[in-house]
Amino acid sequence: MKSLLTLLCAALLSFGSAAHAQGPSTGSGQAYPNKPVRILVGFAPGGSTDLTARIFAQELNKLWNLQVVVDNRPGASGLIGAELAAKAPPDGYTWLVSPQTSIVVAPLLFKKLGFDPIKDFAPIAVIGSTPQLLVLHPSLPVRNFKEFSAFVKKNAGSLSYASGGFGSTPHMAGELLNTSLGVRVTHVPYKGENPGIADLLGGQIPYMFSNFPVAFPHVQAGNLRAVAITSPQRSPLAPAFPTVAESGILGFDTATWSGLYLPAATPREVIRRVHADITRIQTAPEFRKRMLEQGIDQSDADTPEKHAAFMKAEFARWGKVIREAGVKVE
């Protein structure tokens, strides 16, 4: 009898350990995760948000031994992908990775949205952040930011600049530059950074702010010229490029951050599991090194609560830029 009781206790302990390892239930009685996860990205492949989502998907594939796929739904400043995510079943199997474009800036610009960024999403964390490089076509007769500023002031009426989409951080960086220099340069939005970069390389567009991982390889190849970076400090990957702030516009600081979101009604235990595993991935030293080599910074110990407060601060910050620049829906 004693032997039988011992075996029963061992079996119960083993079952409990296995259930814990498998994770929480989604409410259907099955442990989470137990099927493929889809990560929606509202922008074309190749941009910094897409790159961030794909790197995390690879790590989650290994951690969970499940398929985690990135589903690009570009268009409308990322709003198409965001709306799909907001209306997805709240079972933890549809995620959104989005920059501030469609979560913060677009809601400030568009009167009618198919979702509420505060009420319809459960924020998890910022999973990556990248500064922008101010990159020019080599035909522009400028070599540094001082010369570039003088050139823009003199030729603003005939110039245009590209971005990866209306309301994107590179767009907002361009508008912040406009107000800082007291000019009005025409904005040309694209459905993603790579199409904008393609026209910049071809000489159809003279300059743009572009996220570091996207622009830097073209600068290294000598096909584009970089005159400044938008981060508060110089990048360790490219220390030769001065910051916009040190080049003459004090306080100029823009970065594209990529946040992770689930539908708001997702079970709390699933949100806790996702946050724990995302944190486990992004705090690993080798992972942080890999991301930094791509030009993507990692936040420190971000939480759903901290990210919700950060979103509110970003609404205030970019709302001020939009008002001062007079940005209107195009």
Give the arrangement of secondary structure elements.
Blueprint: H1 2-22, E1 37-41, H2 48-64, E2 68-72, H3 79-86, E3 94-99, H4 100-109, E4 121-136, H5 145-155, E5 160-163, H6 169-181, E6 186-189, H7 193-201, E7 207-211, H8 212-220, E8 225-229, E9 255-263, H9 268-282, H10 285-293, H11 304-325
Helix pairs in contact: 4-11, 6-11
Quote the distance from N terminus to C terminus: 79 Å
Number of DSSP strand runs = 9
Fraction of residues in β-strands: 15-25%
CATH topology of the largest domain: D-Maltodextrin-Binding Protein, domain 2
Number of domains: 2
Helix-strand category? alpha/beta
Helicity range of the residues?
Answer: 40-55%
User: What is the helix tally?
Assistant: 11
Architecture of the largest domain, according to CATH? 3-Layer(aba) Sandwich
- Classified in CATH, the superfamily of the largest domain is Bordetella uptake gene, domain 1
Query: Topology as H/E string?
Result: HEHEHEHEHEHEHEHEEHHH
Instruction: Report Rg.
Output: 22 Å
Shape: globular
Poorly predicted runs of 5 or more residues = 1-21
**Can you identify the CATH class of the largest domain?**
Alpha Beta
Rounded mean pLDDT score: 89
- Biggest β-sheet, characterized? 9 strands, mixed
